[in-house]
Amino acid sequence: MPDTVLEAEHLTKIFTSGKKSFTAVDDVSFTVKKGKCLGIVGESGSGKSTIAKLLTRLLDTSEGKITLLGEDITHVKGKKLREVYQKMQMVFQMPGESFDPRRTLGDGIGEGLRNLGLGRQETRKKVEELLITCGLTPEFASRYPHEVSGGQCQRAAIARALSVDPMLLICDEATSALDVTVQKQILELLAELKNKKNLSFLLICHDLALVQAFCDEVMVLYQGRVMEMGTPDEIINHPKTDYTRKLIDSVL
What pLDDT is stored for residue 107 in this prediction? Predict the structure, then answer.
């Protein structure tokens, strides 16, 4: 289907240590449609971040298939993987740690552009535009990660992710390290990008209120398995499993 940006089929990840093995992700399937957001929720250790690492090829799958814009990317490496990262980008939980502390934010944001062959002046102009898009002034390009707040750093991280004009943003707990007011601002920014750029999102989150505000569909994970899927209202107002009920009761 042309409106499917990402499809995961029977994703499984088994970690082995000596004679012991642990299934972190157990036969998980889902799709992300163009301009839509899928939220993945579940308690710590449910496999959410492992799924993000499988999708972005930071980990190899034990079984299953990942398709991005109709192309099988399950085992891509090297040059092919760099091409994948032009279509799919990730925004991490700790924005400060995702930037090189010895380089300015502008340098970090511009790296993807330089890799695409843009000249210095063109890169600088685009970096300034991206900062403005993400609610920062152009002067932030000359600041270092330790010189800005967590929220400002996360905005810069989103600007960097957008620099290559991806179709899909994977946000792994991208707001959980920020205070509530800043979380709301970042979520509003993501919603604006979703609407203006028709961007697709995979939002990994443990906060059901955020999921309800932003996601079109929700997948509930427990011990690596999918408990249920549905719209945020279906999941929150009519949960099908005891686990989902407990998850909702613990936060709402």
Answer: 93
226 vs 192, higher pLDDT: 226
Token reading at 24: 């972190």
* Token representation of residue 175: 């707001």
Non-local CB neighbours of 6 within 8 Å, separated by 6+ positions = 31, 32, 55, 66, 67, 68, 69, 88, 168, 200, 202
Residue 188's pLDDT is what?
84
Cβ burial 215-249 (10 Å sphere, 16+ → b, else e) = bbbbbbbbebbbbbbbebeebbeebeeebbeebbe
pLDDT (0 to 100) of residue 251? 67
Q: Which amino acid is at 247?
A: L
Helix (H) or strand (E) holding 184: helix 180-197
The pTM of this model reads 0.88
Contacts of residue 31, Cβ cutoff 8 Å, sequence gap at least 6: 4, 6, 7, 8, 38
149/49 Cα distance (integer angstroms) = 24
Asked if 239 contacts 206 with a C-beta cutoff of 8 angstroms, the reply is no
DSSP type of residue 138: G
How far from 229 is each of 46, 93, 181, 206, 233, CA to CA, in Å?
Answer: 15, 24, 29, 15, 11
Residue spans of beta strands (DSSP E) within 34-167: 37-41, 63-68, 71-72, 88-91
Distance CA 202, CA 41 (A): 11
pLDDT attached to residue 1: 46
Residue 115: pLDDT band with limits 50, 70, 90: confident
